[in-house]
Amino acid sequence: MSQSERLVLATRYRLVSEIGQGANGTVWRGHDELLDRAVAIKELRLPEDLSQDDRVVFFRRTLREARAPAQLRTHSIVEVYDVVTEQGRPWIVMELIEAPNLEQLIERDGPLPPERVAHIGRRLLDALNTAHKAGIVHRDLKPSNVLLDGDRVVLTDFGLAFSSGSASLTKTGHFMGSPAYVAPEVAAGEKATPRSDLWSLGATLYAALEGRPPFERDNVMATLSALANESTPAPQNAGALAPVITGLLEKNPTRRLSHARAVDRLERAMAGPRAGRRQATPRYRLMAVIALIGATVASCGIGATALIVGMMRESPGPSPTAHASTPAGRPGEAAPPAGVASSTLVVRARNDSCKIFVSVPGTAMRVLSDETLGKGEARQYGEEHINAVIYDASACDVWVNGQEKPLGKPGERVGYTVTKGSGG
């Protein structure tokens, strides 16, 4: 056991094991012996070459990192319990969230489906709204500062945050923040504002959808040059989220989406087609989708249109002669799982590559599954409205309202938007 792991801070916080390291210090799993609960403890290291004045700034920034979330009591912002000084440096004690951050998830799984990104974006808008109403600007929103604990989305690391009533702690000539996620006006030297955080949110959601932020280049200077001089690239995988992403990534902050408009557009995207309308016959449904494609070309670009065309191909309505009885299954394969005929959606793994994301759309999207099934495993869903993403269409058998869907190509990602009894 190292000397640090034997350390007890303020006679109550015992360091248990190291969780991870970053540029500014180490995060430890700890135990609060007074309250008998697990905690996370952030150990902040002071660079050796800091002057006395810089050390004062460092300590003030540490207190700011602790005070900002401590003022913001919300489920979407990490909770801070205490700040202590030990061995001449500060330590922040906070709630322990043993979950991956968004950056790790993108690196592990690649781009995420729009349904999940919409859920993440909605929760982050809640967190920013709470912070901005308290006069606090985060200034460093990026995927590594977003923890994903099941359905919970948590914004962390307020080290660069400032409130409207506090003095700036940024030294002249020092760039603060993450170049790939910083707003253009901040990179140009202007003061960060709530709309700067909204740009960073847009860049974060763009990275979740595309696998990398919009202006990331090989080095800091190239990234900042692209940010200043190049047009914002259109997201290719955003689907219905495209208007949200492009609105948040408007370079002119006065034309950028406000918080309220971002919430409105995001909730429209999450809700999907309006529920409760009389189901059209296949012929008229096809005409309605063609009209929707025309409108989408004008408003969202080719990427969104391709998504709608894909949904038409993968999710046709039932034929007039279709029966609701359980299908017999493909020749030579196991019979369909029990309950197929009465389920809105059934997915069964053909092999160990059957990865799925299933959710119920609405103002607060509910995630039903986000997992990779083992061969032969099946999942059934009976909810009225369901969105589903199948990451490898050749790896999963899918039934929609009792009807078996054709297998796709290896590696093909297929989306389904299903209303119970509609035929998919």
UniProtKB/TrEMBL annotation:
Source domain of life is: Bacteria
* SMART domains hit by this protein: S_TKc
Which residues are recorded as binding ATP? Answer: 42
Q: What EC number(s) does its UniProt record assign?
A: 2.7.11.1
Protein kinase domain segment(s): 13-270
Extract the ranges annotated as region (Disordered): 315-338
Which intervals carry biased composition (Low complexity)? 327-338
- Keywords (A to Z) from UniProt: ATP-binding, Kinase, Membrane, Nucleotide-binding, Serine/threonine-protein kinase, Transferase, Transmembrane, Transmembrane helix
Q: Could you say which protein family the record assigns here? A: Belongs to the protein kinase superfamily. NEK Ser/Thr protein kinase family. NIMA subfamily.
Database matches in PANTHER family: SERINE/THREONINE-PROTEIN KINASE NEK, SERINE_THREONINE-PROTEIN KINASE NEK2
Identification of the protein by name: non-specific serine/threonine protein kinase
Instruction: Say which species the protein is native to.
Output: Actinomadura montaniterrae
Q: What is the lineage of its organism?
A: Bacteria, Bacillati, Actinomycetota, Actinomycetes, Streptosporangiales
